[in-house]
Amino acid sequence: MKEDSKKDSFRKKLLEKQSEAKVVRKIVLTVFILLVIAFSGLIGGGYLYIKSALQPVDPADQKTVNVTIPIGSSVSMIAKILEENQLIKDDRIFKYYIKFKNESDFQAGDYELKKSMTFDDIILSLKKGKVMEEVALQITIPEGRQLKEISSIIANNTTYDEEDIFKKLTDKTFIDAMRDKYPDLLTNDLFSEKVKYALEGYLFPATYPYYTENPTIEEIVEPMIGKMHEVVTKYYAQIQEKDMTIHEFVTMSSLIEEEATAKADREKISSVFYNRLDKDMMLQTDPTVLYALGEHKDRVLYADLEVESPYNTYKVTGLPPGPIANAGEMSMVAALNPEETDYLYFLATKEGQVIFTKTLDEHNKEKNTHITNQ
Fold first, then answer.
1. Residue range 283-337, pLDDT digits in tens
2. Burial of residue 100, with CB atoms counted within 10 A of its CB: 0-12 exposed, 13-18 middle, 19 or more buried
3. How far apart are CA 4 and CA 16, in angstroms?
4. 282, 320 contact by CB (below 8 A)
5. Is the pTM of the predicted complex or chain greater than 0.85?
6. For this protein, what is any one GO molecular function term (predicted)?
7. Cβ neighbours around 209 below 10 Å, total
8. How many CA atoms within 13 Å lie on the side-chain side of 293?
9. Residues of 306-344 as b/e, b for ≥16 C-beta within 10 angstroms?
């Protein structure tokens, strides 16, 4: 009897456990199904939202909407203007679409657009450009120019006084206004006590057209910052991969620009700078000394190397506090893609050739051959 009683008790417990297991399996299955439904809903909802955002705002609306795209507008600014005028549904989707299609060369101008237009229709219109007016003024800013030189270039092409232009370029109110417009580009690093001029290196070298006879200094300069933002934005991912700040990237690019000649291999120059940084060696690049001195000279003397300045890379280790000139896109690309070398030194000859060496002895020999004995 006791034997049968034990068996019955065992069966009951086994049945109870099986019943509990079924309940647990049902609960797990139910939760899993609910999660799948929720996840599918999110994916489906996201897909439907993006699909809708890619469609015209109103395919039946043929009324024209007058839109002005200012000079120097970035893709983000253009997308925002289009959304504000209800010509697209989501500026972010439009921006990603442009990036996916690798579109560029949008032109400033006055446009008559419609809510029935597709993304491709809008892009085509913006690329063709209905230019506002004939160019009234054109200013070219070459690569490797400093803020004071840019002030002089603007003065030579306008009626403004060079001092007034430079005063505006270093005016905190103006800089803060630009910072509000381009916060990703003009970061807190610009306002370090050691930085000589906040906007140094941030006016992109290019040719800028203006469509009014007498644009203000602000109207002349802002497109240069806007263009810098547009160019640097393309490299944000690579800058992050190199664990650099935007300011460090712009600074490194400026050093490469100032050291490069027409025949120079910028990627090799870049490699020398990175190799020296990796070894905690001072960069010892002459253009930083000249920037610290505030003058241009054909040749840096030994006495010049003693100038006390955070920009003097013969005195301080690492990058200088900020850019020493504006860099072109070639130098920016080189700053992100240094060639793999063992070089620690380079020397520019009077003929424009750049000689790279691995040791100080090799460098000094080349220096005696090409510089000292000439």
1. 999 999 999 998 887 778 788 888 999 999 999 999 999 999 999 999 999 999 9
2. exposed
3. 18
4. no
5. no
6. lytic endotransglycosylase activity
7. 16
8. 17
9. ebebbbbbbbbeebbbbbbbbbbbbbbbbbbebbebebb
